[in-house]
Design goal:
single chain, about 550 residues, alpha+beta, Four Helix Bundle (Hemerythrin (Met), subunit A), 4 domains, five-stranded mixed sheet, two-stranded antiparallel sheet
Length: about 550
């Protein structure tokens, strides 16, 4: 199929435009780069989330450790020391009043408890060069030192002399001085506990702040992640999904038949743009093919109209051949026969021979015209295909050949298990009549002919076989015998016009099958003709015969 000139003239421009589009597409980011960018941004967000989350967790852990491992033990030690001092004062007062040694136990136990509590307090504080409580460390250390000093002064100036006086060891006791000294101890103890309580409040505030920081970090991370996902969603939708949807819509339009609309895809990643270019190239190719097909269809329409005109002429010729041409031919044949009957033997021998030639030629011409008409009528019947029992049709064809069978002393075998096929009963009977008639005619001298008709399902078709024990056909002539007017023997040897097998082929092809001569080597002589018929009802070219055509019968041709 040739390409229209307009299409050929557009090709250089299309190639140049495609080169420019390819260069523009090459400058665009590919999808993998967009995904790499998104993955990198997601990775950065994850790293930042991990860093800030770790910092928040570490801040919470540090505040918790300070509160529970430093402040609380120090406060507990200070409170224990304050209780121990109160026990000491209670023990001294009771012993000085009752003067019983048992009342002195709270004092001695309180001194030990005070020492242990202060030791625990100083252990929490640690060395002076490594403050645990920051700026409050010096204040707490000073409070503890002053508390120990005032407690020691109270014991030295009041408690010790009071105990000695109560034991009768002499000495005087200044109760007012003892009260003043213990008030100082109580004030130092309350100051230490109060400072530690403030440190505890500050530590709790730090823990709450760290927890709030973690919450803020979590919210910020969630907001950033949501924003990233939303941005990624909008980016994917705008950069990928929307161009793909647009390209898909344009492609569906092309598929729907709108091949004249250009597919334009100038946005999106490189792969989508290149895909749009490929779709446009496909559309342009389809457009060119459509243009070519339309041009071819126009030529086919012209040829179809020409064929219709030719068919009308052929139908007119067939009408003329079947009516106008046969009338003078019958007249020539009739008068030649009259001449032969009336003047036969009255003229010389040469005249009788000439008259015989004329009669024979007229008869053969009439037979040839009838055979041509029969050949042309195949496929023009309006009768629908029906289920045809081949066994019945084959027996009917054999009945038409009964005279020829008796003259030859032959046998025609038609089994009962031949299939039912879809077709035209009259044409199928004509087909079997021709094949069986050929088998009877082309027999070997001195050998009674035996013709067998067989059939069965082979693949998706019925295969019918006609076998005989006649003279056979050489493989090189297996295709030639189905050509109209082709003869393998002279007219003086075997009568006929040479149209029988051509008519058989046309009938089989009209039914959607094929016919051939089996050329496989066989041990016995003879011919095997096979033909197929579809299992389902159909017409050969998917066309019904014209509804206005008249049903015509098929004549028994001369073979």
């Amino acid at each position: 199929m040739s390409t229209p000139p307009a299409v050929r003239s557009r090709r250089p421009l299309l190639r140049q435009h495609r080169v420019e589009e390819d260069a523009a597409a090459a400058r665009r980011w590919p999808i993998r780069r967009w995904f790499a960018l998104g993955a990198g941004a997601a990775a950065v967000i994850m790293v930042l989330a991990m860093v800030f989350g770790t910092v928040a967790v570490l801040r919470i852990a540090d505040a918790r450790d300070r509160l529970y491992d430093d402040v609380s033990p120090a406060l507990s030690a200070a409170q224990d020391a304050s209780s121990a001092l109160l026990n000491q004062e209670t023990g001294v007062r009771g012993f000085t009043i009752v003067r019983t040694p048992e009342f002195l136990a709270p004092y001695t136990d309180g001194v030990d408890a005070e020492n242990r509590a202060m030791e625990r307090f100083y252990q929490v504080l640690g060395p002076a060069d490594a403050p645990v409580f920051g700026s409050a460390d010096a204040v707490l250390r000073a409070d503890a030192d002053q508390l120990r000093a005032t407690a020691r002064a109270w014991r030295d100036e009041y408690a010790g002399p009071a105990i000695a006086a109560a034991r009768g060891e002499g000495g005087t006791v200044d109760l007012q001085r003892g009260r003043e000294l213990f008030d100082q101890v109580r004030a130092r103890s309350a100051g230490l506990v109060g400072d530690l309580a403030q440190v505890r409040v500050d530590a709790r505030g730090q823990l709450d702040g760290a927890i709030r920081y973690l919450g803020v970090v979590g919210v910020v991370i969630a907001v950033i992640a949501a924003g990233f996902l939303a941005g990624a969603s909008f980016a994917v939708r705008g950069a990928m999904l929307r161009p793909i949807s647009r390209l898909a819509a344009q492609t569906r339009a092309v598929v729907g038949g709108d091949v004249g609309e250009q597919v334009v895809q100038a946005v999106g990643p490189r792969e989508i743009v290149e895909l749009g270019q490929d779709v446009e190239a496909m559309r342009a190719h389809i457009q060119r093919e459509v243009d070519s097909l339309q041009d071819a269809n126009r030529r086919l329409d012209e040829q179809t109209r020409e064929l219709e005109r030719s068919n009308r002429d052929l139908e007119q010729f067939a009408y003329v051949a079947s009516h106008d041409l046969q009338e003078p031919l019958r007249k020539v044949s009739s008068f030649c026969q009259l001449l032969q009957r009336r003047y036969g033997g009255r003229l010389d021998e040469r005249a009788d021979q000439y008259i015989g030639f004329a009669v024979d030629g007229a008869q053969r011409m009439q037979t040839l015209i009838n055979d041509l008409l029969t050949f042309s009528r195949v496929g023009r019947t309006t009768e629908g295909f029906v289920a045809v029992p081949l066994a019945k049709v084959a027996r009917a064809a054999a009945g038409q050949l009964e005279v020829a069978r008796e003259e030859a002393g032959g046998e025609i075998v038609v089994p009962d298990d031949l299939p039912h096929v879809h077709g035209d009963a009259g044409l199928l009977q004509q087909l079997l009549f021709n094949l069986i008639g050929n088998a009877l005619k082309f027999r070997r001298p001195g050998v009674p002919p035996v013709v067998r008709v067989e059939g069965g399902l082979v693949g998706d078709d019925w295969e019918i076989v006609v076998r005989d024990n006649g003279i056979g056909i050489e493989p090189e002539f297996a295709d030639k015998i189905f050509v109209i007017f082709q003869r393998l023997h002279g007219r003086e040897v075997y009568a006929g016009t040479g149209i029988g097998l051509a008519l058989a082929k046309k009938i089989v092809e009209f039914h959607g099958g094929r016919i051939w001569v089996d050329t496989d080597p066989r041990p016995e002589p003879g011919t095997v003709v096979r033909f197929t018929l579809p299992v389902e009802a159909q017409t050969p070219a998917g066309r019904a015969a014209p509804a206005t055509a008249k049903t015509e019968s098929v004549r028994e041709p001369s073979l």
